[in-house]
Amino acid sequence: MNSNVHAQHFNFKDKLHKQFIAAAYLPEPNQPQDVININLKNGTFEINPFGNKLKPFNRNDFLTYQLPFQYDPMAKAPIFEAYLNRVLPDKKLQSILAEYLGYVFIRTSTLKLEKTLLLYGSGANGKSVFYEIVRSLLGEQNTSEFSLQSLTNENGYYRAMIANKLVNYASEINGKLEASIFKQLVSGEPVEARLPYGRPFVVREYAKFIFNCNELPRDVEQTNAYFRRFLIVPFEQTIPEKEQDKQLAQKIIKNELSGVFNWVLEGLERLLKQKQFTESEAVIKAREKYEKESDTVKLFLEDYNYAPHSVHSIQLKRLYSEYRTFCTDDGFIPVNKTNFQKRLENCKVVIEKRNIGKVVFVSNDSEYKQYT
C-alpha cells in the first residue's frame, strides 16, 4: 500500500497551506532588527548598516517569497523613468513611490510608519501602468488585490489571505470600511482572521497596502488617527489617447524590472535614513482636501451657508431633511440622524432640546463664516 497521502481537492490543499503559513508558530529569523533581506532569483540581497551585499540563499532567513528576476546592480530603467516623468513630474512624489515599495520589505518592528499608499486621480493618468509594474516586480504570488472594504469586513476571510504577502494592491477603494480594523491593519498590528468554516486565528505578518482610486472613501471616521494613515499621491496628468502606449507596462516588465528594483532600493535606503516618507506639499494638500470633503455634514453647512448663531435656531428635523436632500442631489450617502447631530456639534453648533423637539442654533444670513 502506498503510504503517501495527497490532497485530491486542490482548493482545500491551497486553503490548508495558507492556514498553516498564517497561523503556525514558526521560528523567528535570528538576525538584527536593522538587517533587511530580499530574495531574488540569483540570491538574497542583504541591507545592513555596514553595507549591502548579494549573498547565497539561506533557509535560516525564513523568507517565503522570491522576486521573479535577478539582482543586477548596473541595471537601468530608462523607459520606466520616462514614464514616471510624464505621469508624475513632481520628483518628491516619485521619491514617495520608491520609498513605499521599499517599505514593503521592512518589518513593522524595524520601522512603523502606519501608512497606506493611495494613487489618486481620474482615468488615463498612468495609475494602471504602475499597478501592473508593481504586481510583476513583486511577483503575483507574493501580492493580493482585495478591496479595503473586504479586508475590514468583520468575518475576517480576506485578512487570512494577505498573510505573508508583500503587498495588497487593489485597483479601487470605493465603499464603506470599518475604521477600527483599517487602523489596526495599516499599523501592522496582529489582527484576527479566519478561513471559511475555520476557527479564528491571529495574523502577525501580512501585506502593506496600496490602492488606486478615482474617488476617496466618504462618510468616514472624522479623526486624525484615521486621516494620518493615508499617504495620498495625486496623479493629475491626463495622457491624451494618441500618446498612450497600451504595451508600456509590458515593455518595462519584460526589460527593466532589475532597473526598477534598483530605483526601489534607493527609496528603501532613503526611508531607512529619514525614518519617514519624503515630505511633499502635494501630499499634505491632498490629505487636507480629503479630510474636508469626506465630511458631508460640513460640506452641507458650507453649501447652504449655515454658520453657528447665538440666537437664531432651526428644528433639527428640518435641518436634517435639508441635509438629506443635499446628499441626494450631490450623490453622497447621508449619515444617520445621530451622527448628523454629532457632526454638527463637532462644527461648534449648539443643539438644545425644546418643547417642539431639538433645535439647532445656526443661521445662513450674511454673517456666515467658514468652518474650521
UniProtKB/TrEMBL annotation:
InterPro entries: DNA_primase/NTPase_C, Helicase_put_C_phage/plasmid, Helicase_SF3_DNA-vir, NrS-1_pol-like_helicase, ORF904-like_C, P-loop_NTPase, Phage/plasmid_primase_P4_C. SUPFAM superfamilies: P-loop containing nucleoside triphosphate hydrolases. Keywords: ATP-binding, Helicase, Hydrolase, Nucleotide-binding. GO terms for molecular function: ATP binding; helicase activity; hydrolase activity. Pfam families: D5_N, DUF5906, Pox_D5. This is DNA primase.
